[in-house]
Specification:
Arc Repressor Mutant, subunit A; Dna Ligase, domain 1; three-stranded antiparallel beta sheet; three-stranded mixed beta sheet
Length: 143
């Protein structure tokens, strides 16, 4: 499922759970659907403001908390003290962040061979597969 499909799915889940669409919820969902990697609540707020969306920072945090409770977003720990958030796609498609330890830049990467290895490792140890992978290093600017 593509990201925009996630937005429709998320709004359906919110509506089915009894939440109105509109305002901050719709703004955050629509914004997250257009992103390629995880973002902090502050980054989401700042970018929504730059799009002239009048959403308060407290509303962004509340929406992210609700979306997390409904398992529509996941909190991603890339190190440091700030949480990042990204959509959870219903089909299980996902990527992982790579973090520059110099400047803090975060980008997404995917690797099917890594995914196969993680599925196999989970089977070997008898666990249901769920994983978080964060790569750290230096980006081209910080080498």
């Amino acid at each position: 499922m593509e990201q925009q499909g996630w937005a429709d799915h998320a709004l359906d889940v919110l509506r089915d759970a009894g939440y109105r669409s509109g305002g901050a919820r719709s703004a955050v969902v629509d914004f997250l659907a257009r992103q390629s990697c995880c973002l902090t609540a502050q980054e989401i707020f700042d970018r929504l403001r730059s799009e002239r969306r009048s959403v308060g920072i407290a509303s962004v945090y509340r929406v992210l908390e609700l979306l997390g409770e409904l398992r529509l977003v996941q909190r991603v720990d890339v190190g440091g003290s700030t949480s990042r958030y990204e959509p959870v796609l219903p089909g299980g498609e996902h990527h992982h962040p790579v973090v520059c330890d110099g400047c803090g830049k975060v980008e997404a990467f995917s690797d099917e061979a890594l995914e196969r290895s993680l599925r196999e490792a989970s089977r070997r140890v008898g666990y249901t597969e769920a994983h978080d992978v964060v790569l750290h290093g230096s980006c081209g600017r910080c080498d």
